[in-house]
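User: Quick sanity check before I run a bigger batch. Here is a single chain. Can you write out its predicted 3D structure?
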Amino acid sequence: MQTYIYDHYGYVVDDDYAKAFTYRGYDFKLESHDKNEMELSSLRELVRDINRTLFQEGVDIIENTMGLLGCVEESSSISLVGVKKFKVTINDLNRMHKEYLTIGDKSYSSTLLETKILWETKIDLIENTILPSFDKSMEYYNLIYSVISYAIGLAENALTYLNDIIIDYGSDVRKVTIAHKRLYSLNSFDLLNPFNLVLDSPMRDIAELYKSDALNNADLIKEIEKYKIDTKEAMILFSRILFPSNLFDLLEDYYIEKRRIEEEIITYYYHINKKMKEISSLHQFLINNFGIRPIEWLIY
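Assistant: Done. Predicted structure follows.
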């Protein structure tokens, strides 16, 4: 990627294979996508508007040497994103959610059926493609198999819970805002990366931060008080907390990029009991305060 970045954008990077680099206080990263120039231009204006309205720092989809925002490479397009490094707090995320919140607007709709289909596809990929790809003779295979089997079971529980929400309350997500596909931590690049943005419930971001331990139970309870959520939103939050997206992302990295993930899997394994105790405690809180549907095996 070193040559590609120089030829297309004029930046000199040290690492031959790096898709991301830092330059003059900005984080840069190459992003693959399926958007055309018109869509990229609209996305660029959106993220510039978010920055101008809320942060006044710096973010852009960088034009390449051909004056284009994207470059077609094989089966997808590639764009370079640049975001200024600045400190991000949970209050910044709250402001972003509040500024772009829509309630009951069908033009900014998001449905739980869409999420259900995505989760079903993800579970199928992990169970039938990625899990069988692990070499049974590799070190820690039994532990890896146990962790993945556990995660698949957790995902299926989350899927069942999501389906319960659809049955009880309908598929529409009434409160929709600009959220994120993934938000493992509070940092400026993930917050403003235009290819990380998605229209969804703000509970999506809160759940992702909780799963990555950026929020604990006390933090999460403080956050949901700010959003004044109802029973359906509390159930959406909890279904997302149950779905192991962070581990599934790691497994996809292993499968697509062929990188070693044994250490991360082992770390995940040794934190399972602690995390499940926290989730069980949160589950009881949500039952007591929002009347969410109980899950028997989580009640101690």
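The two ends are 52 Å apart (CA to CA).

User: Great, the batch can go ahead then.
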